[in-house]
Amino acid sequence: MSGARAWRSFESDCWHPSAPAVAPHRSLRKAADSGILPVLIVLAAVLFNGGLAIINAHVTPLSANVVIAAEVLLVVAAHAVIFTNYRPQMLPWYAMIVIVVLFSLERAMMVGNFDPKFMRDVLLIPTFVLLGMTTPARRLTTLVVALHVIVVGGVLFEALFTQAFSGLFDIRQYYIATRGLEAADFWNGGSDLFVSATRPDRLFSFIDLHRTSSVLLEPVSLGNYVVIITAFLCANYRHMSLKVITFLLVGNLIALVGCDGRLAAVSSAVVVLATLAAPILPRKSALLYLPLVVLGAVVLVVAMHPSATADNFPGRVAYGVELLARYDIAEWFGNSDRLLAPAVDSGLAYTIATQSIIGLVAFWLFLVLNAEERTPVQVKYLHALCIYLALSMLVSYSMFSIKTAALLWFIHGSLQMASQQRRTSTGRTPLTQRTPSPRAQLAPRPAW
Question: For all residues of the chain together, what is the average pLDDT?
């Protein structure tokens, strides 16, 4: 079998044809003609740190500049594909890019120095949403399955052959070389794994194993990946075959137990429950997740008085709330670096310090109000996305990592365009939104 035929066969196994095939619009045909380029860009964004770690360990020492250059190259490649497939629906996201750049310049003038990282954190979001908007939804499952094979395979390799995995990636030395960490920052000086891979207590204590990170190199990144796959699975399962659903579910459980992600376990459970209820909730109700989570955090701290120094979920929440209580007007408007260093342990505090409270609220409103909610898949994924962001911001700013942000926002962008693709190509409302005829109502439903 040729490579092209093998790829088409793989895609047909991943995509369950529950929706009718339609002839693509001219601009969409151009996106389809680009082949798998957007998928390859996302795969590279998720996996390139693992590749650089191998190079650093076995070929030549690297620096932070190499990591930055790799990210810039990926972003440039993404926008080259986006420009080639531009359509009017992309304009609001480009407006967001302009606003982020302008605020970054204003912040640099107020603070006295320009840190491109703060601008980069947010620009990854529209970049991969826009890249997803160039990609037919049928390619999503192909991407997720291919990535799952690599990530879950990495978890099993790390768990069964820890010394070989450690020697291959030498994660400890890679983060010292490219992230400015020091040997004293690591829990176990004798381990070449990530900083928190060998913490003394495990949530899933029934197995004697360190916290795995697979090719994502960090246990927290693997935990975030698990939540994203859970969101995709809950939103899109009707468009996948049973064997793909089984593979994603079993692989996700393996990854969850391996990374020992407490927040990942809680977030995944909340996502499952929320996506079951999402189709019957009012439109735009996803707006409520962030304010409700923040209110819940304040209530938790006031009622339980957890120690802000404890390295657990209540302690992280208490730390973030107490840090926000120390913010003055400059921090709330993102024009101060005074408390920036302590804010790295609180995603909410970090986002406000680097983007301002106005920026955070404006982004949240834009994300939900600008989102299409025409199909159950779009509704479910939007709710899952908002839950993931709200809960993640309580304890870390890891949602800005390209390793997981690329996949998260790419899926969102592609699903947002799904109904647009069908409506543009047929000139009619998507079939999922039309009232079936009496004859159709009596016809048997296809097996999913």
Answer: 86
363 Cα distance to chain centroid: 16
- Contact between 411 and 236 (Cβ < 8 Å): no
Contact 131, 78 (CB under 8 A): yes
CA dihedral 296, 301, 304, 307 (to 10 degrees): 140
Q: What CA–CA distance (Å, rounded) separates 256 from 397?
A: 20
Distance CA 48, CA 42 (A): 10
Most distant pair of Cα atoms in the chain: their distance? 71
Per-residue pLDDT band for 136 (boundaries 50, 70, 90) equals: confident
pLDDT attached to residue 190: 64
User: Which token pair is 173?
Assistant: 């030395």
| Residue closest to 322 by CA, chosen among 352, 342, 296 | 342
Domain chopping of the chain, boundaries? 24-425
Q: Determine the Cα angle at 308 with ends 304 and 313, to 5°.
A: 70
* Nearest Cα residue to 256 out of 148, 344, 347, 169: 148
For residue 130, the Cα-to-chain-centroid distance in whole angstroms is 14
Query: 418, 427, 405: which is closest to 377 by C-alpha?
Result: 418
**pTM for the structure as a whole:** 0.86
The pair of three-digit structure tokens given for residue 417, joined into one six-digit string? 């365009």
